[in-house]
Amino acid sequence: MPSAFLPDRAFIRISGPDAEPFLQNLITTDLGALQPGVALPGALLTPQGKILFDFLIWRDADDLVIDTRADQQEALIRRLLMYKLRAPVLIEAFGENGATVTWGADTVDAAGVSDHRFALAGVEVRRNAGRLGETGPAGAYDALRILSGVIESGNDYVLQDAFPHDVLLDKSGGVSFKKGCYVGQEVVSRMHHRSTARRRAVIVTADGPLPPTGSDVTADGKVIGTLGTVAGQRGLAILRIDKAGEAMARGVAILAGQTPITVTLPAWTALTFPSSAEES
Predict the structure, then answer these.
(1) Of the N and C termini of the chain, which has fewer Cβ atoms inside 10 Å?
(2) Which domain holds residue 84?
(3) How many domains is the chain built from?
């Protein structure tokens, strides 16, 4: 059963009688859809609809647990406390930093919560707070993310520089369009109902090694996106899928740096590259 320890993760516990309604009015995830034993993705947005913090969230008995980047833990706690006011809610860091993830055929019976993002791609991944036993290299998890089309802030995108649609939260169960208001909801809802999202996460493949994370993705000499996590000949990128679709329709090479690449949308999203006809 493959596994990896991710030292850059940290955890926040939200408890108290108003914990769920408090978070429901702040974050993009619909907590009413949160099933026991399952971790859903989510985000806390700026009022302008961009991702301020990204995370996973799950239930632990009557409490809610947020799994976020370790370097964002304190800032996220401060932001939540700013909104708490006098609500009977306790927000606190807990446990040691780091998460253990396991995957593979035997993972269904393993401990931890099921990561819904990977389940959409047909892969069972379990997450546990802390280090559990001997694990494999963290790079194996990045390779799995690439194959599954799972995007995370840091290597894949910069916080406060992406909308939820850019990183597929609207497809991965990380955004609700029915639950009512939350911070940034108006902008995100408008993008969704007007179908104006054009930046999307894609899976990148090349015949040779890809250039480093942060390299420009170009078509016909124009920048259409940025390369994210890289593992050998495969990687993730966020790019303008309308521009990529136009380039593919015209037979124009798409490049990461100077390396020709093929870009595909994760199958579980059911998204397609717009054609010129769809753009007109």
Answers:
(1) C
(2) 3-153
(3) 2
Structural contact between residues 5 and 98, judged by C-beta atoms closer than 8 angstroms: yes
Q: Whole-angstrom Cα distance, residue 86 to residue 248?
A: 55
CA 238, CA 227: separation in Å to the nearest integer?
Answer: 7
Place of tokens 């949308």: 265
CA distance 52 to 70: 14
151-171 as b/e, with b when 16 or more CB fall inside 10 Å? bbbebbbebeebbbbbbbbbb
In which order are the strands placed within the sheet that holds 63-69? 3-6, 99-103, 125-129, 113-115, 38-45, 51-60, 63-69, 9-15, 90-93
Q: Give me the residue label for tokens 């992406």.
A: 162
Splitting the chain (280 residues) into consecutive groups of 10 residues, what average pLDDT does each group show? 94 97 97 96 97 98 97 97 93 93 80 95 94 88 97 96 96 92 92 85 98 97 98 97 96 97 97 67
Cross-strand pairs, 197:
none
User: Domain holding 66: CATH number?
Assistant: 3.30.70.1400
- What is the SS3 assignment for 147? helix
Report the DSSP pairing between strands 38-45 and 113-115: parallel
Rounded CA-CA distance 145/120 in Å is: 12
If you ran DSSP here, which 8-state letter would residue 269 be given?
G
Q: Is the CB of residue 126 less than 8 Å from the CB of residue 119?
A: no
One domain for residues 15 and 112: yes
Same domain for 33 and 132, yes or no, is yes
How far the first Cα of the chain sits from its last, in Å, is: 49
